[in-house]
Amino acid sequence: xxxxxxxxxxxxxxxxxxxxxxxxxxxxxxxxxxxxxxxxxxxxxxxxxxxxxxxxxxxxxxxxxxxxxxxxxxxxxxxxxxxxxxxxxxxxxxxxxxxxxxxxxxxxxxxxxxxxxxxxxxxxxxxxxxxxxxxxxxxxxxxxxxxxxxxxxxxxxxxxxxxxxxxxxxxxxxxxxxxxxxxxxxxxxxxxxxxxxxxxxxxxxxxxxxxxxxxxxxxxxxxxxxxxxxxxxxxxxxxxxxxxxxxxxxxxxxxxxxxxxxxxxxxxxxxxxxxxxxxxxxxxxxxxxxxxxxxxxxxxxxxxxxxxxxxxxxxxxxxxxxxxxxxxxxxxxxxxxxxxxxxxxxxxxxxxxxxxxxxxxxxxxxxxxxxxxxxxxxxxxxxxxxxxxxxxxxxxxxxxxxxxxxxxxxxxxxxxxxxxxxxxxxxxxxxxxxxxxxxxxxxxxxxxxxxxxxxxxxxxxxxxxxxxxxxx
Length: 472
Known about the structure:
By secondary structure, the protein is α/β, with parallel strands linked by helices. The chain is built from 14 helices and 15 strands.
């Protein structure tokens, strides 16, 4: 499973220690906003020898969606939102998907999926555009409503989406309501309907029996006011930063865990390989997942503190690393979900994607085994429809080399020299305030992890609720 070993190559990444601001619905694919010209070498080309390009990869569909209302129109649109009679309250995961859609991570989608998009996503992991081209889309981005809400909407063609306290967030227009096939959705996304799938239990099984799709007009940029908004760079902002830095290649690494030196080895070795290919300034996008995660994952706020220490200690070079939060919820859907993770990074400007063992995986919820084959994620990415432009970088497993006192790529010819530190063992050491072997993680980063588990003990002793599920 994805968290089972420190040796695992995760399929995620980006970060920086200071803020950067430094069916009749074909029209939904007529995007507005940022267009960035570029062609990335295809995987087939990469096997022949890459032709080095110096521009960023095009977003899916050719243009990057920006569904946030222009600042000059926000006051008018907010007044309009107040006049729409039907309001749909968003839960936490719904709001995260609004965030994802609003910034163009799911380009060329212009809102929550209508039925044609939902079915293509569910059955083909992609959908076809007006010009006949295919873009990858492997996870449904949908909004559920219940029977009473469906009745109240009636023949209306738009609704206002509000947050938990009733503040208008967006207007959903040209709406379409259709049945929510929960069992089919779960079975096709996870390959099982077993009880205990974290995202399914959070966002599907208790959700309404209907789905509502339509075009989104988001009233203002989504903010969480949690001290981390400075790290939440949109795909457009990321592209601007990559251009500012003169990047001629962007390689993405996503993770939902603290960064140890095995991860750092993968990232630094990737840059070395790209330099050897002829690129002059490859830039790393360290892109930790910032949406919903299961309760035993380390919360986002603590992970970001740990990532900052990794940069401060020079484990990763701040000059060639951009750290930014990816706002998507985590589904733990293995080979299906890793396609979404890769596709979203294309829209952010990445033309290389690091993937390793069991990306987006988890243990089976009812059996003592991993839910997915550890090699299927990287194999699926190499064949996935709509991801042909993305260069997939599979890696060997990294483990702790006892002879060198550091993380290194595993050498099966001397397997006795390597120590595999599982996620369970890492958490156990941190909870007991014990240190891992020197060279496993930078000391200041390890201290953040120890402090997190120490805070859980203190909260438990005080009868307080842990923030472990508050990851966004």
